[in-house]
Amino acid sequence: ISFGSESGNLEKLTEIASNLDDIRIGERINELSKDGYSYPKARLIAYEELFGDSSNEILSRPNDTLALEYIKANAALKNSNIVLHTVKRESSGYSAAFDNRMKFQSASGIRKAIRNDIDVSDFMPRDSLNYMNHKSAAIRDRIDENLFNLVRYALLNLSSDEIDEFPQGGEGIGSKLLDAINKCKSADELIMAAKSKRYTYTRISRLLMQIVLGIKRTEFDGMDPGYLRLLAANEMGRKLVRMAKNEELNMLPILTNINREARNLPIFAKNQLLLDIKAADTYNIVAINDMYKESDRVKSPIML
């Protein structure tokens, strides 16, 4: 498995991943969380207290954090023969501001640059650039407005206790959102208004999407995925998919045609798929896409 990381240091990442399995880490994180620290900050403090190793950069960088999860998951497999390889992330970091002196840009930096009419043609694939050029500033503003209206409508139909029933809810975050909703003009303003030492920007963003989609903790919490979705493949990829299906190499069904293959899914996986389709339909509403042509029930994986 090959994955990107800011550090590019597999040895150091493996060491930290192993230390994070120490039971004392979990206990200390719980203590710090009760004192109002967010999970990422609590984990960083707990790690440095227990191991005296300043791993501030690795434990606070998104791709390094994801790398740690890959390493931990592989370590949890008995007799795993999976070889891990990390590629050092170059130039701009995750969510970094656009800087045309850099060879590689962050996706959020590119999006903000496009909003400000900055030429990004040297930093994007042609097809992606053409797509973005068709989305005028007025349309992008309308998309943001549509999303915020969905969020507002969903929040106004809930009490603070009901908001706390969603996976990222709890700890009084529902009250903060309801207090702020009438004072904010955009989803970003709402998230910043509710953000605090305990509630991170990412957590609130996820919570708002869970509220819009109606994803309750009791319905999906702790549930394993019931299928795999193929999004795109080249000729080699198609051969691998056929081989996996014919020789039953994978434990989960691979969906390439929802309408045909969904009938054979167990009920819990069908419910997951319905949510998957609902999320795509909701995105199409917000993005002002054709609801039929862009539907998951109509679109097929892209074959290169």
Structure description:
The protein has 304 residues and is mainly α. The protein folds into four domains: 2-88, no CATH class; 107-135, no CATH class; 138-220, no CATH class; 228-303, no CATH class. The chain is built from 16 helices and six strands. It has helices spanning 10-19, 23-34, 39-51, 56-60, 62-76, 107-115, 126-134, 137-156, 160-163, 173-180, 187-194, 201-213, 217-220, 235-246, 258-261, 267-286; strands at 2-5, 85-88, 228-229, 232-233, 254-255, 302-303. A two-stranded parallel ribbon has the order 1-2.
Please supply descriptive tags for the structure shown above.
55% helix, 304 residues, 16 helices, mainly alpha, globular, two-stranded parallel sheet, two-stranded parallel ribbon, 4 domains
Helix content: 40-55%
Structural class label: mainly alpha
Give the total of domains: 4
Shape: globular
Topology:
Blueprint: E1 2-5, H1 10-19, H2 23-34, H3 39-51, H4 56-60, H5 62-76, E2 85-88, H6 107-115, H7 126-134, H8 137-156, H9 160-163, H10 173-180, H11 187-194, H12 201-213, H13 217-220, E3 228-229, E4 232-233, H14 235-246, E5 254-255, H15 258-261, H16 267-286, E6 302-303
Parallel strand pairs: 1-2, 3-5, 4-6
Helix pairs in contact: 1-5, 2-3, 8-12, 10-11
